[in-house]
Task: structure prediction
Amino acid sequence: MSYVLVIDDEKHICWLVEEALTAAGYRVKTAIRWQEGLRMAAGEPPALVLLDLKLPGADGIDLPKEIGRLAPGAPIIIMSGEAGTYADPSRFAGCLVKPFNLEDLRRLVQRTVPFLPERP
Result:
């Protein structure tokens, strides 16, 4: 089964997103460090990545490229308080500016990956 990968250094954001998407029927994995998120994507490529572009020690331009290399075809939705200031929105499936509404999150995820296969 595919899953949604959430990479954000704020634990409470990871928890909120995981709770909202799990309740909507999605399988979710979270990483609070970008290195951990890359390992997850390399081990089992996600169907979708929700990515904070402002992570300690990570480059907001190179990190999405690396995720794209590890999980080709997986759309990326960015989450950031400053998303519009240093990200080209045309490179991403969507953008959620923090603080965001959880219903907006669910709608954007459902539009991006409306169906994920059931568990085997």
User: Anything to note?
Assistant: Residues 1 and 118 are 6 Å apart (CA to CA).
